[in-house]
Amino acid sequence: MYKNKLLWISLLIEISLLIVLLHTSLIAIVIKSDQAYEWAKENSKFPFTFVVIGDTRPIGPGMELPVELLQRMFHEIALIKPDFVVNVGDIVFGYRESYEQVRDALQKLLDIYEQECGDIPLLAVPGNHDVQAGSQAFKAFTEVFGKKLYYHFIYGGIHFIAINTNFPNAKAMMKYGLFNINDGQHDLPMLDWLDEILKTEEASKTIIMSHVPLLSSERMKKLLKSSRASLYIAGHWHVARKTKLEDTEVLVVGGGGAPLDGDLEASIERGLGVFSYAVVKVGKQIESFFMVPFSIEVSTRKNGDTMEIFVTNRSSKPLTLRGIKVKIPWKNFEISGTRLLFKALFIPFPSPIKVKRLDDKIVSFELASPADSVLVIKVRKK
């Protein structure tokens, strides 16, 4: 009897530990808004790259997320392997949805993200579908991504400021702007808080993020000027748009799966209606550009004791790919270098490769991929 009791206690402890581990692995990829400052302080590096995606929500209440599109975009983001990813809001539909529906959608998105992107940190900016759609959506979103609706952090000497452009009241639907309202998690309401952190925080550059792009707001223009912002990132409009507001570059990244707003006859300044994500490289300068799904692909071909790895970059931008993972069947192998495949010709191309064995079968590669190219890595069994 005593042994059986001990066995049950041991079993319950193991189950509890497993639940904790599973829960920890899930939330480890999410940097909650109230943890962002400390996370950045501990993990900061320079130079660095981050990716922005936005408006990943379903088309209507109770409907499925754009699963295949998200899988593809997250798969490519994993190949780029940025230092972190920012979702600029409207992750769920929210309106006329129950807490369980919203929570399930958030769980589904995180499952897809974790499956494709692994442990790449994910932060979020609140969108109107997330926090303005009602108390149930608000509760679910803040449980997963943090209770602070406005927050900041310094990463690589860059001051990131995430602000809430949604009036936090479901009865005030579609009321957007910069409001001096406290989310209940700060000593100061948002506009006073902004004044304070801009006085006290020192950084080489500032990047401001919001969900709704307040391009006609005089308050926003003053904020961009007072903060000397190099980049302003938003979503909400379901387009890929790159323009300028005063002296600040503006990215509207809303092509994450929601119904597209723009058309293909538009320009990048007006907003293209394409599914997309944005890559931001931060070094001496800040460089940003859009990517569309199926821009990057990795495939393999094996023939006896040799193997070829094809790395395709269909975009117009050179990319450093750090997340290539390939199953190599031999414990000992050698790489003969990279070649550029061009119109069925193999041209030697000196692209330095970093190789790391992750386990007995999986090997990771890091290399520079030229624009509009197919690089071939040749592997031989030793």
The CATH topology of the largest domain turns out to be Purple Acid Phosphatase, chain A, domain 2
Binned, the helix content reads 25-40%
CATH class annotation of the largest domain: Alpha Beta
What is the strand content? 25-35%
CATH-defined architecture of the largest domain: 4-Layer Sandwich
* Oligomeric nature of the chains: single chain
Report the total helices.
8
Measured distance between first and last alpha carbons: 59 Å
Structural class: alpha/beta
Largest sheet, spatial ordering of strands: 4-5-6-7-9-8
Q: Radius of gyration, rounded?
A: 23 Å
Can you count the beta strands? 19
**SSE order:** HHEHEHEHHEEHEHEEEEEEEEEEEEE
The named CATH superfamily of the largest domain: Metallo-dependent phosphatases
Give a short account of the largest sheet.
6 strands, mixed
**Tally of discrete structural domains:** 2
